[in-house]
Amino acid sequence: MIGVKVKKSKENLVINWQLSKIEIPIKEINDVFLDPNYGGEEKSAVRIGFPYGSTDRVVIKTANNTYILFTTNAASIMNKIVNA
What range(s) does the Sublancin immunity protein SunI-like PH domain occupy (predicted)? Predict the structure, then answer.
């Protein structure tokens, strides 16, 4: 099982999970926070990762979309996003 990988590349935040690659422009990120709800608060959010094997949910809000990252390594992912 491959976990969610997050990295910064120039102007984008790149999220890799399994065979998917999602690029979010850093300037479009409005908010980043941990979601205490099991499935995520927002019903129309893009969900990335395995929800049943993860204890933490990192939410990335942009003007157009909301992304929920299911992970067991929330501190590292939050650090990469906030310092992007």
Answer: 3-81
- Which residues neighbour 52 within 8 Å (Cβ) at sequence distance 6 or greater? none
Beta bridge partners of 70: 57
Give the pLDDT band of residue 84 (cuts 50, 70, 90). low
DSSP string, 36-74: -SSS-S-TTPEEES-GGG-SEEEEEEESS-EEEEEES-H
Measure the CA–CA gap between 59 and 15, rounded to whole angstroms. Answer: 13
Contact 81, 61 (CB under 8 A): no
Backbone angles phi, psi at 83, to 5 degrees: -90, 10
Check residue 78 and give left, alpha or beta (phi > 0: left; psi -120 to 50: alpha).
Answer: alpha
